Recover the amino acids of this structure.
């Protein structure tokens, strides 16, 4: 693997290794690669977003668009349609790495393309990575 490709994927690998360490130490799963146990569904997406301290769900764009906020700032937006998509805030350098690594991670739909990604939740993007991206998005809006 070339140095350029290695550097490009470093951000994605950091996300994946952070998740694997966290899931292994939590005792939730013996094998973190069995993502079917933790598949991202509409209900699980909603529950996970609301599990963060201070997270709230609002509907400023109508009843079909779920907006998740913390400290008054948006960290996730999902229309909960099929296919399930979620827009997440992301570090600009990591956002580019994720887009290059996964075809179903695209620049944020109707959002600042530098800071937002829209992720289609399907088999091409590992479910654990979607959850990690949600957590990172939450962290970005709640850091001081």
């Amino acid at each position: 693997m070339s140095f350029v490709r290695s550097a490009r994927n470093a951000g994605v690998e950091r996300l994946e290794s952070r998740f694997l360490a966290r899931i292994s130490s939590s005792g939730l799963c013996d094998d973190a690669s069995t993502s079917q146990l933790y598949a991202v569904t509409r209900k699980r997406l909603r529950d996970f977003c609301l599990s963060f301290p201070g997270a709230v769900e609002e509907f400023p764009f109508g009843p079909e668009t779920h907006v998740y906020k913390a400290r008054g700032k948006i960290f996730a937006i999902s229309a909960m349609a099929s296919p399930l998509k979620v827009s997440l805030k992301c570090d600009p350098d990591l956002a580019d790495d994720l887009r290059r690594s996964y075809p179903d991670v695209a620049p944020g739909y109707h959002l600042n393309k530098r800071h937002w990604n829209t992720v289609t939740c399907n088999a091409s993007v590992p479910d654990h990575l979607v959850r990690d991206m949600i957590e990172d998005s939450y962290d970005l809006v709640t850091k001081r």
